[in-house]
Amino acid sequence: MIPVRRHLAANWFIQSRLKLRHLQVLAALVRDRKLHQAAASLGLSQPAASKLLIDLETAIGQKLFARHGRGLEQTIYGEILTRRAQAILAELDGARDEINAIQDGHLGRVTIGAIDGPIVDLLSSVLAAAQERHPRIELELEAGSSNFLLDRLLTGHLDMMLGRPVPSFDRSMFSYEELGTEALRLVGRRGHPFQHGRTVNIAELHDASWVLQAHGSRLRARVDDLFHTAGLLPPARIVSTNSLLMTLTYVARTDAISIVSEPVARQQEACGQLCILRLDTEISAGAYGLILPSQRPCSPATHVVLQLLADARRATMQG
Question: Residue limits of the HTH lysR-type domain (predicted)?
């Protein structure tokens, strides 16, 4: 006879030495409604399954099932315990699926840092492919200068970055794989006075209004070099900002000019926002590449994104 208890203690399940197997039997009994079928589905003998059911009923002091002609029917206590047991088992199945997904690289969070050019040329297609093929990988993109992004990578805020090795770059702490060269283009608003089909030289641009990245950036240094090579001081009328959005907006609404990454310039021209101005000198910010922290192993999800990046680069080269 089952001893009746008034209340269950806070840790009744552990005190009664119950295990997950007891909950599995409970769920199987609800599904099959016959003890021998439930036992067989779990690979148990009928007496073993019966013993597990008795353990549960003894622990709570109530009958969980009543016998009827069509099989076992739950009592109110059986319904309560079964509902909770099924939820626990479902959560464990969910944990299994998540762990397997993480190990297979289908679930996780990947933070990527990038300078402007690769965002347009490579990462846009990488992010689209990741969302389509691996929708449970959460992707976070952070834009900025190589100096800024390297600091973020070093402190663990980024998993990878597409940028340039700066003078302080320590090759013992990072791996670097060159991906390409970031070409730069001079841009202005549509209908800009410098747009009319002619090529301009650096000297003509000296008195123009500019929007440039702040001092210390590679792009700002390249612009300064252009004027120094022409025997001129850098322009005096400069708005300094590291915000690409501010740069594009200001240039589109004024006669100011700027030098931006070629992929950004092409995209803005295609959208009708800005125009590429013809400069008599080719400008480049130099080579950029994939930078990874050598002291920190990549997660499975990061490996998936790296493969998508390799696929996107291969498609770009073939196209």
Answer: 18-75
Domains parsed from the chain with CATH numbers: 12-103 (1.10.10.10), 108-318 (3.40.190.290)
Strands (E), 125-266: 137-143, 160-163, 174-189, 210-212, 238-240, 258-261
Residue at token pair 């990462």: 123
What pLDDT is recorded for position 124? 87
Helix (H, G, I), strand (E, B) or coil at 120: helix
Q: Are 60 and 4 in contact (CB under 8 A)?
A: no
Question: Please, what sign has the CA dihedral across residues 180, 286, 142, 298?
Answer: positive
Task: Tell me the C-alpha to C-alpha distance, in Å, between residue 137 and each of 8, 93, 101, 299.
Answer: 42, 20, 10, 11
- Six-digit token string for 64: 């969980």
And the tokens for 152?
């973020």
Only one residue has tokens 């130099």, namely 286
Angle between helix axes 300-318 and 76-104 (nearest 10 degrees) is 50
Q: Has this prediction a pTM greater than 0.90?
A: no
Cβ atoms of residues 146 and 176 within 8 Å: no
Which among 26, 22, 34, 31 has a CA at the least distance from the CA of 72?
A: 34
According to the model, what pLDDT value does residue 1 have?
57
**For residues 206 and 285, is the Cβ–Cβ distance under 8 A?**
no
Q: Helical H runs in the chain? A: 12-15, 20-32, 35-41, 46-60, 76-104, 116-118, 124-133, 146-154, 218-229, 244-253, 262-270, 300-318
Paired tokens of 96:
């299994």
Structure tokens at 242: 């590291």
Phi/psi for 176 (5° steps) reads: -135, 125
Q: Which residues of the chain have pLDDT under 50?
A: none
Tokens of 186: 């001079």
Residue 225's CB is within 10 A of a number of other CB atoms, namely: 12
**Two tokens, residue 28:** 């199987």
